[in-house]
Structure formats: C-alpha cells, structure tokens
C-alpha cells in the first residue's frame, strides 16, 4: 500500500488525479485489500484505483458528487469485482492441467534444447504476452538507451507516466519470475 | 559516452536484467524469419533510428535479433 502512495495514481493522460480524488482513493485502499484479499498485486490494485479515478473524474464533469467517499467505494468495488471475474476467467482459460501441459510441451517444436529450456521459453513467452504493447515498447526503448524524456515526447505522455509504466512493467516481470522487488524504486512523487 | 554515463547505463541495465532475460529468450526464431540485416541492427544499436523505426517491433518478436542488438551495444543479455 505504501508503494501505491509513493508511485501515485495517474489519469489516462498520464497526469495525476486532482488531490481530492487521489485522497479518497488512497483512503479506500485498506478496505479494498480487506474485502478483496485475492487482489494482492500492486499493479492490479493501481489499475483498479486508476480506473475508479477516471470514472469519478468523468462523473464530476456533470456536477459535484455529494457523497464522494461512498460513490468512490461503490465504483472501486464494482471495478474490483469485474477484475476478479476477468482474472479468474482468463486464468481458467489459459491454465492447462498437468497432462495437457506436458502434451503441449512435448508438441512444442524444438531442434535443440532440453525440455526444461523449452518449458522456460514457453513461460517467458507467456510472460511477455502479459505486457501491453506500449509496456513492451517502452521496455525495449529503455534497453536501447532512449531517455524517459525522449520516449515521453514520442508517446505524447509525461516523463512521470513513462517512468511509471516502465516501473510497473518491471514489477510485473519480477513478480512473475519470483524476483523480490522490495528494493526497486519506481518513479516517485509526493502525494 | 562518458565514463559516468557508461557507469549509469551499466547500473540501469543491471536493474533491468529481467527485461533482457525476457526479450533475449522469449521469442526464439531459429529459422531467422524476417530477421533484420546487420546494418539495420547496427543502426538500431547506435540509436541512429527514430523510436518509431519498424526494426524495434522486430526486436520484440525475435530473440536472436535482440541478442545480436544487445551484443552490438556492448551488452550481453542475461542467461536464461
């Protein structure tokens, strides 16, 4: 949760939310964690909160929300519930049982490499597919040596947004690879 | 590149080793289908191409080209 506080929540244009929206979302984080204990992934939590922030901002364009805290919680809960359904459905669709998994591995064409290497390749490929196209491109451009500023200019986003996307992509990869991520310092700004 | 810049880049790369590992091994292309000519890889490695150059898309799809690209940058991707 501390991580989300420091990384900040961004609107779809890469800008921070207005303070009163961000404040109410941060206040709801403990409740979200408590009522949706399966949503432990910081990236998913941030995505839920950011989607809620966007919906609240959109709603506020039509007029002030009288009970913002309550409205925000209903929004967050709705998105989280939807994520849980999507997540479990996707996982169910993509998960093979052990026999089917072995069959898939045996059928994977390979002119060289051990079964373990083939398995590793399949896992890495699946992991890469979990990143969005933009996340993949930003990772590659970073490895190519482009600065966040250069990438931000090209993508018409802010430097903070680029750093945040990059940081979250690394988090996703590290989490999937089982690498401890505590020491990583994402793009930080005060909330 | 100055010594300090090179050092910063090395530190950054160490921080991003898992990205290297992913791109260097996730997309084997042993038949080298659609691979980039050496001069294009050299140009990409030297950042003489713009960010929207199509070669970068290929690097995301071909681990062989990505490893060669990293080698040309003077970096060896992390072993799988």
Please, what is the average pLDDT of chain B?
Answer: 82
| Number of structural domains of chain A | 2
Q: What general outline of chain B do the C-alpha atoms trace? A: globular
Radius of gyration of chain A: 19 Å
Main sheet of chain A?
A: none
What does this structure look like?
With 191 residues, chain A is an all-alpha fold. Chain A is 70% helix and 0% strand. The radius of gyration of chain A is 19 Å and the shape is flat. With 80 residues, chain B is mainly α. Residues 1-12 of chain B have low confidence and may be disordered. The interface between A and B is medium-sized, with 29 and 29 residues.
Q: What's the topology here?
A:
The complex is a heterodimer of chains A (191) and B (80).
Chain A: H1 2-7, H2 19-35, H3 42-60, H4 68-94, H5 98-107, H6 115-129, H7 133-144, H8 148-155, H9 159-177
Helix pairs in contact in A: 2-3, 2-4, 3-4, 7-9, 8-9
Chain B: H1 3-15, H2 17-25, H3 38-45, H4 54-61, H5 63-72
Helix pairs in contact in B: 3-5, 4-5
Which short descriptors sum up this protein?
heterodimer, A: 191 residues, mainly alpha, B: 80 residues, globular
């Amino acid at each position: 949760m501390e991580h989300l506080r420091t990384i900040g929540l961004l609107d779809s244009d890469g800008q921070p939310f207005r303070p009163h929206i961000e404040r109410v979302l941060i206040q709801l984080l403990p409740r979200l964690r408590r009522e949706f204990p399966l949503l432990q992934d910081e990236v998913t939590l941030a995505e839920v909160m950011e989607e809620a922030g966007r919906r609240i901002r959109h709603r506020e364009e039509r007029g002030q929300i009288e009970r913002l805290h309550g409205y925000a919680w209903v929004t967050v809960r709705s998105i989280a519930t939807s994520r849980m359904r999507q997540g479990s459905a996707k996982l169910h669709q993509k998960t093979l049982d052990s026999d089917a998994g072995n069959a898939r591995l045996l059928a994977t064409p390979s002119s060289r490499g051990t079964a373990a290497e083939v398995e590793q390749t399949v896992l890495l490929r699946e992991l890469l597919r979990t990143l969005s196209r933009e996340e993949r491109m930003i990772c590659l451009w970073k490895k190519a040596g482009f600065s966040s500023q250069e990438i931000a200019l090209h993508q018409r986003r802010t430097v903070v947004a680029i750093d945040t996307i990059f940081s979250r992509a690394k988090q996703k990869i590290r989490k999937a690879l089982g690498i401890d991520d505590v020491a990583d310092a994402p793009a930080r700004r005060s909330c | 590149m100055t010594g300090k810049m090179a050092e910063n880049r090395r530190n950054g790369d160490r921080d991003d080793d898992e990205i290297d590992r992913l791109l260097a091994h996730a997309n084997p292309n042993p038949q080298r289908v659609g691979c980039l000519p050496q001069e294009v890889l050299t140009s990409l490695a030297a950042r003489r191409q713009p960010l929207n150059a199509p070669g970068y898309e290929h690097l995301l799809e071909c681990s062989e080209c990505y490893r060669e690209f990293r080698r040309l940058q003077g970096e060896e991707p992390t072993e799988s």
